[in-house]
Amino acid sequence: MRKFLFATAALAALAATPTRAADMAPPVYKAAPPPAPVWSWTGFYLGVNLGGVWAHENFTAADPFNTYGLAGGPFVPASAGASNSAVAGGVHGGYNWQVAPSFLLGIEGDFSGTGLKLSATQSPLISTLTNSNSFATWTNNVRTLSSIRGRVGVTAGDWLFYGTGGWGWGWEKITADSACVTTGVNPCGIGVHAPVSYSTTRNGAVFGAGTEYHWVGTNLIVGLEYLHYQLNGSSAVGTTTNIATGVPVSFSAACPAGTPCVSYTANSFGINEVRARLSYKF
Question: Distance from first CA to last CA of the chain, Å, rounded?
Fold first, then answer.
């Protein structure tokens, strides 16, 4: 009887085992997370920039016809230099091509406004006989700076290091004057001056370098850039007039009254700019 009960219990246990195994849920396997997307520098971007500019410029003035009638003859070309710095800010935009895993080509244009002002004075004018009450002055107000540049760089993941160069130009307001008054060691017959004022766009080359960093998880790019503008010279000629009345006058038959004869030159000069950048890549 005991053997029969033992065999019956064993058979019941074996019969129940497959049922319990079938009731168990299969294991669940979670898929591995997708790899993080690789950042590509290729594409259009727009941004803003803010920084500072500084420059030194040399000016000259000449009166070859002696329109001031100096007893010692025409003054030797007067010259003076000026240095200054200012804030500059504006916008930029361009397109990058990441042509290889670590090589980049690009093109960019930018426009910035600035309050850079360069002013210089030469006093007295230098003549065979120095006139103690004579002077020449120049002022150059650089209002805007712009450029179109190529970019060549190397990438390292979210970092870009590049050089840049191309064509740059600046829009400027230039004023100049020189005067010879009625008193002093070598006075003029009457007080006269030869003012001139004009606006001009001066062109030249621009080159520099910079670095940018892609803000991970966004389309924002922050950067730091240095640019050097080398702009050409500019000249204008002033007409000698009476300081008090504004009527054109002259002491020289070679330059009759009302004829522009006193020349002013703003020489070729360089402007340096360092700026922070914030761009959005589309």
Answer: 87
pTM higher than 0.90, yes or no?
A: no
Is residue 8 domain-resident?
no
DSSP 8-state secondary structure symbol assigned to residue 49: E
* Number of domains comprising the chain: 1
186 falls in which pLDDT band (50, 70, 90)?
A: low
Calpha distance 113→274 (Å, rounded): 14
pLDDT tens readout for residues 91-133? 999 999 999 889 999 999 999 999 999 999 998 887 776 666 7
Percent of residues, the chain, with pLDDT higher than 70 = 82
Specify the length of the chain in residues: 282
Q: What range defines the domain where residue 248 resides?
A: 44-281
CA distance 119 to 59: 9
**What is residue 129's DSSP assignment?**
S
Q: Residue 12 domain-assigned?
A: no
Report yes or no on 28 lying in a domain.
no
- 1 domain-assigned: no
Q: Number of H helices and number of E strands within the chain?
A: 1, 12
